[in-house]
Design goal:
This protein has seven helices and 47 strands. It has an eight-stranded parallel sheet with strand order 30-28-27-26-25-36-33-32, covered by helices on one side. The protein has a six-stranded antiparallel sheet with strand order 3-2-4-10-7-8, with no helix packed on it. Helix 2 (349-361) packs parallel to helix 3. The radius of gyration is 29 Å and the shape is globular. It comes from Rufibacter quisquiliarum. Residues 351-483 form the Glycoside hydrolase family 2 catalytic domain. This is Beta-galactosidase. Residues 226-307 form the Glycoside hydrolase family 2 immunoglobulin-like beta-sandwich domain.
């Protein structure tokens, strides 16, 4: 019998090796450097739940069988080939590279054996994420079903186990953009900023043995003001006589120990707490044991951070984001989290970490995780290396051409989402928050993005704020603000721009998206035959660097106007969208790291002077502009603005398509300011003159929010006493308005 078992395992090993040799990535698209190291034997072998670590576990990633059949068909008797889990069926690294249509279903099958040491334990089967509806069968019996493409789920499969080999089957249906379930940017026919669909298993599948009284959930909540850490936990099936042992360490030194009867919530003091921040990502490690009658029932390793996120007033009276009771500017990247070889699944853990290391090295301190939820290891890396995370909820609606579902910026009412869909959306959002609220790097929740499927805003945002009062909530990132949430978030491409802080007292003013400067790098494009675009596209690297420099230069003044955070679009190119700091294959960093760090430093300057208006615009209160629709004559930009050629009109000034406009105003200069900036609302070619000197010559396409232009380098043209600023607007592309303001800081 022993000889037979040895022969069996030898044959099994040979079959696995043969299968591994036949698997290979598919398709002719670009790939990352990490893809070449992926194999059926090493696909995502890292421990998938770093926030709650047990030593005993089994990874089920690797080659499974798959079949794509018509929706509603019985489980296939014959499977069509092999797929490498955890890569989605559409991806190159899956080895399949086929789309899954809404009228189809994807079936998976694999088998595994459990160690004998698990015999007296409960077996928990975990799925990191399956997009979208998953039905799980073990040994021919239905275990359960889960709907939701972004949240992890698990089943206790103990009663379904049999002796010997276990057969696991997963049935998946994914409607993608044929329905309104949360899916982010996936679409069946990719174009623009809509990307290749992702269906099926796309995060790690794994098993672990646990005692019935083991820890089920564990969330530490710090209170730096009280110098306490509170542990909130639950057990699977407690009997009521459990003890809890806790040992807390920092940098290898034990700082606290305690043993008490188990409580779902208890607090412990932390003497001289070492606070967590991006500059000093201090983490405390702890070990927790559940004990009954002297027997250790469960032991887990975890960690926490002592940090606090809140709103507060800075020295200028502006509402800002506070970290550890101090104003802290969030300077971040919009991070889509897409990969040319794995789509939503990074090829490896090293690849996942690489993007984060690059943006950190460039001087960013924040990542806005854009309508995607990452594997837990992403947030673990953010905790460890020191990056703040704004976490979006994946949006769910049909398409932009459904105006009732895509709520425009000036819409009076939200979309009326069907009741069943609203329940599903909110269940997924709650599950995502539950599974991520452990991670201290996450400081902001973002339920809605740009009106995409935005519904019942006030209720959903208020629920989010109430459900997790330990974090801030950016209720609506861009477009359709409903005066709810901790922030007013503007989007402007390329920008920069913000909403007036004076009109939004008590809320932080943030720029949730801007930039989007595109540069298509040859030999690093997803598809050379399609439009490769950015919100502004440049053909050389030097042009891109110049424009990025100008963009940052124009962002500095906004801090003096109350800007609390800014998010640049984006980390990497994604398919045809080439506005990344990195190419899609991550081979080229478009903005040199050292250059970026230097450009970013002024955003963090302390004691910034509050802006003082020299010429007021009409954004908040109606103002006056001296304007003329006909050329005012020679040296018009030096004249007294009350000259005959100009007429005093209320701002903003209406301008018809194709109409030209000249405008001037005067202001007094008693002492040359350190810095000076323009607020500009225009749609066309604009020339700006200061005392007759041309200081700005650019094409401007303002949308909703005033553009900001830093003109500090031109303070040399100021003179004591009266000064004149003039504007020439030509080539107006549509009926629009014109307005401007001038301020010093």
């Amino acid at each position: 019998m022993k000889r037979f078992n040895s022969l069996f395992f030898l044959v099994l090993a040979l079959l696995l090796e043969a299968n591994a040799q036949t698997w290979q990535p598919v398709g002719d698209k670009i790939k990352t450097r990490w893809a070449k190291n992926v194999s059926p034997t090493n696909a995502w072998q890292e421990y998938p739940r770093p926030q709650l670590v047990r030593q005993d576990w089994k990874n089920l990633n690797g080659l499974w069988e798959y079949a794509i059949v018509q929706k509603g068909s019985a489980q296939p008797k014959q499977f069509q080939g092999q797929i490498l889990v955890p890569y989605a069926v559409e991806s190159s690294l899956s080895g399949v590279g086929k789309p899954l249509q809404p009228e189809q279903e994807l079936w998976y099958r694999t088998s595994f054996a459990l160690p004998k040491t698990w015999n007296d334990k409960n077996a928990i089967l975990h799925f990191g994420a399956v997009d979208w509806q998953a039905t799980v069968y073990l040994n021919g019996k239905k275990v359960g079903e889960h709907k939701g493409g972004s949240d992890p789920f698990w089943f206790d499969v103990t009663k379904y186990l049999r002796k010997g080999n276990q057969e696991l089957v997963v049935q998946v249906w994914d409607p993608t953009d044929s329905d309104i379930q949360p899916r982010g940017k996936q679409i069946l026919k990719p174009h623009g900023f809509w990307y290749t669909a992702v269906s099926g298993i796309w995060q790690t599948v794994w098993l672990e043995p646990v005692n019935p009284a083991a820890i089920r959930t564990l969330v530490p909540e710090p209170n730096i003001d009280q110098k306490q850490i509170t542990f909130k936990s639950s057990l699977y099936k407690p009997k009521g006589k459990e003890q809890m042992r806790l040992k807390i360490s920092h940098k290898g030194k034990v700082v606290a120990e305690q043993e008490i009867p188990y409580k779902p919530e208890f607090s412990i003091n932390i003497q001289d707490p070492q606070l967590w921040s991006p500059e000093y990502p201090n983490l405390y490690q702890f070990q927790m044991e559940i004990v009954r009658g002297g027997q250790v029932l469960d032991k887990v390793d975890s960690y926490f951070a002592m940090r606090k996120i809140a709103l507060g007033k800075d020295q200028n009276g502006y509402t800002k984001l506070f970290l550890n009771n101090q104003p802290y500017f969030h300077w971040g990247v919009l991070d889509q989290g897409w990969w040319p070889d794995g789509l939503l699944t990074p090829p490896t853990d090293a690849a996942l970490k690489y993007d984060m290391e690059v943006v950190k090295a460039m001087g960013y301190n924040t990542i806005r995780k854009h309508i995607k939820v990452e594997p837990a290891r992403f947030y673990f890396h953010a905790d460890t290396m020191g990056l703040l995370v704004w976490q979006d909820m994946p949006s769910g609606f049909l398409r932009l051409n459904h105006p009732e579902q895509h709520v425009k910026h000036d819409a009076e009412k939200d979309w009326v989402r069907p009741a069943a869909s609203a329940v599903q959306f909110e269940q997924e959002w709650k599950s995502i928050m539950d599974n991520l609220k452990f991670f201290p790097s996450i400081v902001v929740w973002v339920p809605f993005n740009e009106g995409w499927g935005q519904y019942d805003t006030e209720r959903v945002v208020n629920w989010t704020m109430k459900y997790d009062p330990t974090r801030l909530v950016d209720g609506v990132s861009g477009w359709t603000d409903r005066n709810v949430g901790h922030m007013y978030d503007a989007h402007q491409y390329p920008g920069p721009s913000i909403e007036p802080a004076t009109q939004n007292q008590g809320r932080a003013i943030v720029l949730g998206e801007f930039g989007g400067l595109g540069y298509p790098v040859q030999d690093h494009l997803w598809d050379t035959g399609k439009r490769n675009w950015g919100y502004r596209t440049y053909l050389t690297n030097n042009e891109l660097i110049d424009e990025y420099t100008r963009l940052l230069h124009n962002t500095y003044p906004l801090v003096a106007r109350g800007l609390a955070a800014a998010i640049y679009t984006q980390t990497s190119d994604v398919e045809g969208e080439v506005n990344g700091l990195l190419t899609y294959d991550r081979e080229i960093i478009k903005i040199p790291v050292a250059t970026a760090r230097i450009l970013h430093e002024p955003l963090f300057y302390k004691n910034v002077k509050k802006r003082e208006y020299l010429v007021r615009d009409s954004e908040v209160e109606p103002g006056h502009i001296m304007a003329s629709y006909t050329h005012p004559g020679a040296e018009w930009n030096l004249h007294n603005p009350f000259a005959v050629a100009f007429k005093k009109v209320n701002g903003p000034v209406k301008v018809d398509k194709g109409q030209n406009l000249w405008a001037v105003n005067s202001f007094m200069n008693n002492a040359t300011p350190d810095n000076m900036a323009l607020k500009l609302f225009a749609r066309g070619d604009v020339k700006v003159y200061l005392n007759g000197h041309l200081i700005v010559n650019r094409y401007t396409l303002t949308k909703r929010h005033y553009d900001e232009i830093n003109i500090s380098e031109f303070t040399k043209y100021l003179k004591p006493g009266k000064n004149v600023i003039g504007f020439e607007l030509t080539n107006t592309v549509e009926d629009s308005e014109f307005d401007f303001g001038l301020y010093q800081y």
